[in-house]
Amino acid sequence: MAKPTPVRGLDAATPMPEAARALLGARLADVQRYLGKLGPDLGSDEVHDARVATRRLRGALALFGDRKRVRRADRVVQTLQDALGDVRDVHVQLDAFTAIAEKAAPLERTALRHVRDHLAARLPGRADELRSAIPRWQQDGLQALGRLEQLKPRGKLGGHRLRGRLVADLENLEARLLDAQRDPSATPMHELRKTVKRFRYALELLAPAMPTEIEEILGALTPLQETLGTLHDTDVRLELVDDHGDASTQGTDAVLKRLRADRDRQAQDTLRALESWEEEAVALRSQVLLSASPLKRGAPRRGGGRG
Prior knowledge:
Blueprint: H1 16-36, H2 44-61, H3 68-102, H4 106-146, H5 160-182, H6 186-206, H7 211-244, H8 250-290
Helix pairs in contact: 1-2, 2-3, 2-6, 3-4, 4-8, 5-6, 5-8, 6-7, 7-8
């Protein structure tokens, strides 16, 4: 996964209007750079990098608060993100089913060919949608983001408001985690996965204010995100084979059996990762997000007042 462009000159005491504009500008520049790398064939890695950049951009929008102009900008960014995701998701599954077919038995290959044909038929339409979405983004997206320039969110980058929001996000993540532990089926795990990603991109924004602490949290969170992603991809494959495999052959049943075995193993890996993260979250919430205000630990101040 491509890393976000670092933003220099920010710290815990940076006023939020300055920090929000700087971080939004950096995240927007990342989106534009990765869109510029998309060739005519819309390569899988390039689409993935652009999609991740749009997620990070949406995370930066949250720094401006819950306002009408912010919600409008978020919808415009999400439209581009969805178009990128529609192409990327097909790329991921085509690559996966091609790899599975290389080691499959002849009957399994027949079922897998049906699924790959279905995916391949969907790709041109989704690619055309993405190609149309990009020029719309260049007009509507930049215009919507430009309307945020005059907004002045309150507080400081390392202040109590942003840390309080992260605590709320963490509590939401923990609630999703409990749902997934009680029911490790596809939907609860997918909802947890989306929550983990949003939390990760929100945390990255706070890195200039709390670099050591955020690095520690991300070190625990990133493996969980990756494990959940692997599980989700298998859940999608199971649905695709069930819906589009050749029902007239034993190959489909064999592929489903193989994928279900993979899914059972991955679910156990994920549940172990959830237990590990749960232990980390309790300590990190107390140590970093609640009691460890950077402004109280010697970070340089740019003025009085609370964050």
